[in-house]
């Protein structure tokens, strides 16, 4: 093999010689060939290899592997041979090994950059020792990786990479915002960009001293119990949405608008919406949350002291899989929004100096706009039509009930319950194996009757009636004189 390599190397040199002859019209002497061989044999100080030895290895590879398209792939073959060369070196003495400097690679640089991120968690004690502290633990962050598995039963998938990015982005948002609860609320489509939405419960919500407009429910209560963040890219920062006012919810119920994806876009509608697109988005999120977030019956109960607070049942009575396939076993988790745009009625205004029965006013407000009890069964919702309910149930997978493996007791079913809200297309509740998830993926527009018509402006007032002629308020001649002149004219007419 070595003899063959020498043969091909000499052949390569002869080719170079022929090139010189054809291009420069002069021959290459034997001395010039030896000079070229010496130049090619000069080794690099770093690798200890030369072009001459590298060409020998390339020719050996070509003879052994016989690759195709040598001209097009010659650079790739050269790089491959150079990267896969086995270099043997004599063992170095111990004195040299002690002075070897560390060799940084791409992975080493990545490790060094990540170690810098952990510097803030290293604490130096009084004795001079460095102790590594751990980042603060998160309170309650939903595992979107598991929730995504449930969403696949409804035909929804973000992909493995995007799902992992969403989970890590929610984790980062929870640390930066200080929220004690966090979950992925869903996604709302827009004409230009889409909104990823996260729902969280902030620490100390409801204790703020910021003045609110009249009837505004403060943060941590009613429609503003949860805080919402949006982003059009999971790799970018989240933007906190403002709290919603009752007037914004009232007008949002009267208009139908597809979002653009720009939080600062104007809302051109009638009635005029009091805010930008970020305010309309927040109002629609509040409406969807109150109407579509469900929980199995028998898990939560209403607090006896405060009807707006729910808590876990002391003895959980979770319905079976067969029972969860019916609308009798699912309840609304959040309070219903009143026509006034609030969860509860605001305190009535009493003019100063007037004696008004406040309780009578409250009773009248309750009669006109009744407050719905919490933990309401969804079967009590008003149907859309005579033969169409507001919820659709479907079973996905093997709905056969099997006996649980010991030591577990009871039964188990591997199918999934998929519940869709008809009024809000895109709202889903998926239940499987004792776990359930609520998510919304849609345009944020409520389904209305097919004959939906926008609210028309008020009627134009009719033209006023023509005014009746009236006597001059300030005549130049007194009325008595006018009467005497008219009487004289009448007498003259009678004489004639």
From TrEMBL:
Upper classification of the source organism reads:
Eukaryota, Sar, Alveolata, Ciliophora, Postciliodesmatophora
Q: Which Pfam families match?
A: Radial_spoke
User: Which keywords accompany this UniProt record?
Assistant: Cell projection, Cilium, Cytoplasm, Cytoskeleton
- Give the principal location in a single coarse category: cytoplasm
Q: Cytoplasm: is it a keyword of this entry?
A: yes
Annotated region (Disordered) at 454-496
Q: Which PANTHER family match?
A: RADIAL SPOKE HEAD 6 HOMOLOG A, RADIAL SPOKEHEAD-RELATED
Q: What's in the GO CC field?
A: radial spoke
* Keyword Cytoplasm applies: yes
* Name the record gives this protein: Uncharacterized protein
Q: Which GO terms describe its biological process?
A: axoneme assembly; cilium movement involved in cell motility
Location comes to:
Cytoplasm, Cytoskeleton, Cilium axoneme
Where would one find coiled-coil regions in this protein? none
Bias class Acidic residues marks the residues at 480-496
């Amino acid at each position: 093999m070595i003899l063959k390599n020498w043969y091909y190397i000499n052949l390569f040199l002869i080719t170079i010689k022929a090139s010189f002859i054809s291009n420069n019209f002069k021959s290459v002497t034997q001395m010039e060939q030896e000079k070229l061989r010496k130049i090619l044999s000069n080794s690099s100080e770093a690798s200890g290899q030369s072009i001459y030895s590298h060409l020998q290895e390339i020719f050996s590879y070509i003879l052994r592997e016989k690759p195709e398209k040598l001209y097009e792939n010659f650079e790739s073959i050269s790089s491959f041979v150079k990267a896969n060369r086995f270099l043997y070196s004599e063992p170095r003495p111990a004195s040299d090994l002690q002075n070897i400097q560390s060799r940084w690679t791409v992975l080493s640089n990545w490790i060094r950059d990540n170690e810098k991120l952990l510097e803030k968690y290293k604490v130096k004690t009084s004795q001079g020792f460095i102790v590594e502290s751990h980042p603060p633990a998160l309170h309650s962050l939903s595992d979107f990786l598991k929730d995504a598995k449930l969403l696949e039963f409804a035909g929804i998938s973000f992909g493995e990479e995007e799902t992992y990015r969403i989970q890590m982005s929610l984790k980062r948002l929870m640390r930066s915002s200080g929220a004690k609860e966090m979950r992925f609320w869903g996604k709302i489509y827009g004409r230009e960009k889409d909104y990823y939405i996260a729902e969280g419960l902030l620490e100390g919500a409801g204790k703020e001293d910021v003045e609110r407009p009249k009837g505004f429910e403060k943060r941590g209560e009613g429609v503003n119990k949860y805080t919402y963040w949006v982003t059009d890219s999971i790799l970018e920062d989240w933007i906190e949405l403002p709290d919603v006012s009752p007037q914004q919810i009232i007008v949002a119920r009267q208009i139908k608008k597809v979002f653009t994806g720009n939080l600062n876009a104007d809302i051109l509608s009638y009635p005029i919406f009091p805010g930008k697109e970020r305010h309309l988005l927040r109002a629609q999120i509040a409406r969807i949350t109150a109407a579509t977030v469900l929980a199995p019956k028998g898990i939560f109960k209403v607090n006896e002291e405060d009807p707006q607070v729910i808590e876990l049942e002391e003895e959980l009575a979770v319905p079976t899989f067969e029972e969860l396939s019916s609308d009798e076993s699912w309840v609304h988790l959040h309070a219903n929004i009143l026509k006034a745009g609030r969860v509860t009625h605001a305190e009535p205004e009493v003019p100063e100096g007037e004696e008004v029965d406040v309780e009578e006013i409250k009773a009248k407000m309750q009669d006109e706009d009744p407050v719905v009890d919490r933990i309401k069964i969804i079967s009590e919702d008003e149907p859309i039509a005579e033969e169409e309910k507001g919820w659709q149930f479907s079973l996905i997978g093997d709905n056969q009930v099997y006996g649980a493996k010991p030591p577990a007791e009871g039964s188990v079913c591997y199918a999934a319950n998929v519940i869709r809200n008809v009024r809000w297309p895109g709202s889903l509740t998926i239940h499987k194996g004792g776990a359930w998830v609520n998510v919304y993926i849609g345009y944020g527009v409520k389904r209305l009757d097919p004959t939906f018509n926008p609210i028309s402006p008020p009627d134009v007032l009719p033209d006023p009636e023509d005014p009746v002629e009236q006597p001059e308020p300030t005549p130049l001649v007194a009325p008595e004189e006018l009467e005497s002149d008219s009487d004289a004219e009448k007498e003259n007419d009678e004489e004639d």
